[in-house]
């Protein structure tokens, strides 16, 4: 019972202390506004790498002179509640703290800092603090630092790829530690050129892009291309890899158009003609027919079906078209055989006599040619 009381008393005392801290922070934030700090809300980095914290600040005019007295500038970690509770930190705790170095010019209100030797244990909220001989102040805006064991997947942007039109594929990877940036590449390079570029983002962080400049061809269609990011780390000899695969979709006009026909065509057959084409995006197909020198458009469809009749004899053409162009198949001659029993016999008789005239005796041939000449004269 006694134990319980004392522990609850302690909790109360701690709560009172927290309230005191909170009120002092609130007064600092809303009444005095001695120090305003501008940092990104969250920053990500990787265990074994470093982290640049872009940071700018304003300090009230009355306190500005402390910047000339080379004050101690640090970052305090923790929640707002435990912010000032740093005396509780043991030496062991301190050794586990990240190495923080202010690299910005304080007189230019630049508190940009680098955090080194990062481990995931360093994930926390951090507050910027200026400490002079007789004055110290802590910013009330925290940067939430997230140190993970992995790296984010690269961000790849692929525009519409058209055959023969030069394009850029862009792969972007954050570079939280600009002194050890990732090496970003494209593989394969598709006969193009890869250039690397470093960007300064609006929030002061940096990123590295690999730009692949190439001219897409039909052979690149459905090809896999890999963007690979290699991040050097301090903690190990082995760098950390991340990658993203993209499957290319190259658009092109119809390349090949042909008609596939199933079976022979006899009178009364059900005929199916299919228009085949190689095109991206897929083509729209149109059918044409030429008969006795007259051309007509039959339908807009990939498949043409009919029950064979005399008037279906003619030349068939299919056209494949997409937004990039059109291409016609070669003409396909369809002759509907066996119009009637009599016609068939006539056809076979004619066929037989021509055969005999070609391959029969020379006498018969001479007879045929004489007859042929007399007919022509
Ligand atoms: C940090 O990483 C998380 C998860 O990967 C992501 O959602 C977030 O946008 C990242 N933040 C920044 C500032 O890059
Ligand atoms: C500092 O003051 C300038 C001018 O008033 C303002 O533009 C800037 O946003 C302020 N920066 C911060 C961190 O408060
Ligand atoms: C900090 O920001 C507050 C609110 O925007 C403003 O009233 C105050 O003057 C700023 N302080 C400094 C030192 O810039
Ligand atoms: C702040 O300092 C860093 C490190 O020197 C520098 O890269 C950055 O450009 C500075 N920012 C501004 C706004 O001057
Ligand atoms: C950072 O880590 C490396 C490798 O573990 C070590 O050699 C170096 O002394 C560390 N730097 C600091 C400042 O602790
Ligand atoms: C201590 O504070 C006073 C009043 O703000 C100031 O005049 C003096 O320069 C400060 N001393 C140092 C060493 O910064
Ligand atoms: C921190 O990073 C991890 C891994 O990238 C992610 O899952 C998590 O959402 C991140 N947290 C924040 C607050 O960005
Ligand atoms: C990837 O980059 C594009 C273009 O820069 C951007 O609009 C998009 O938000 C980015 N996506 C991620 C997950 O960062
Ligand atoms: C590709 O990037 C290069 C270099 O940045 C630029 O000169 C070119 O105009 C870009 N091409 C296209 C099609 O965007
Ligand atoms: C980046 O990677 C490419 C391909 O692996 C390599 O040729 C190049 O030397 C690397 N660049 C750096 C700076 O490591
Ligand atoms: C042709 O198709 C029609 C309608 O689908 C069907 O009635 C007929 O039996 C078919 N003819 C042949 C020879 O398959
Ligand atoms: C395909 O053939 C039809 C019929 O002859 C014609 O009208 C059309 O213009 C041709 N299309 C192409 C792309 O040659």
TrEMBL record:
Pfam families xref list: Ig_2 (PF13895)
Listed InterPro entries: Ig-like_dom (IPR007110), Ig-like_dom_sf (IPR036179), Ig-like_fold (IPR013783), Ig_sub (IPR003599)
Superkingdom of origin: Eukaryota
Residue ranges occupied by any Ig-like domain in the UniProt entry: 154-186, 254-335
Designated name of the protein: Ig-like domain-containing protein
């Amino acid at each position: 019972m006694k134990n319980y009381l004392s522990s609850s008393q302690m909790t109360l005392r701690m709560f009172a202390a927290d309230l005191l801290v909170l009120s002092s922070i609130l007064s600092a934030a809303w009444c005095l506004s001695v120090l305003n700090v501008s940092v990104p809300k969250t920053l990500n980095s990787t265990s074994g790498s470093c982290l640049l914290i872009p940071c700018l600040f304003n300090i009230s005019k009355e306190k500005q002179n402390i910047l000339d007295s080379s004050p101690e500038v640090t970052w305090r970690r923790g929640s707002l509640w435990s912010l000032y509770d740093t005396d509780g930190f043991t030496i062991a705790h301190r050794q586990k703290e990240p190495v923080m170095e202010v690299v910005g010019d304080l007189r230019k209100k630049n508190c940009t800092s680098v955090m080194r030797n990062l481990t995931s244990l360093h994930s926390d909220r951090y507050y910027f603090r200026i400490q002079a001989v007789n004055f110290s102040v802590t910013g009330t805006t925290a940067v939430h630092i997230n140190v993970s064991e992995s790296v984010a997947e690269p961000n790849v942007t692929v525009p519409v790829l058209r055959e023969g039109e030069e394009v850029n594929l862009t792969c972007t990877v954050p570079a939280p530690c600009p002194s050890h940036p990732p090496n970003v590449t494209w593989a394969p390079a598709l006969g193009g050129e890869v250039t690397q570029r470093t960007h300064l983002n609006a929030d002061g962080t940096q990123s590295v892009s690999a730009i692949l400049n190439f001219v897409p061809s039909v052979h690149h269609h459905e090809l896999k291309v890999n963007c690979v990011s290699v991040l050097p780390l301090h903690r190990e000899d082995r760098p950390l890899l991340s990658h993203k695969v993209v499957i290319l979709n190259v658009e092109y006009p119809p390349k090949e158009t042909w008609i596939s026909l199933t079976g022979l065509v006899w009178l009364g057959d059900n005929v199916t003609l299919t228009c085949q084409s190689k095109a991206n995006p897929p083509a729209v197909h149109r059918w044409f027919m030429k008969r006795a020198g007259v051309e007509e458009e039959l339908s807009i469809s990939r498949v043409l079906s009919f029950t064979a009749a005399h008037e279906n004899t003619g030349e068939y053409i299919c056209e494949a078209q997409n937004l990039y162009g059109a291409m016609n198949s070669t003409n396909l001659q369809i002759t509907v055989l066996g119009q009637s029993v009599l016609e068939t016999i006539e056809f076979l008789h004619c066929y037989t006599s021509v055969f005999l005239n070609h391959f029969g005796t020379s006498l018969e041939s001479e007879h045929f040619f004489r007859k042929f000449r007399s007919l022509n004269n």
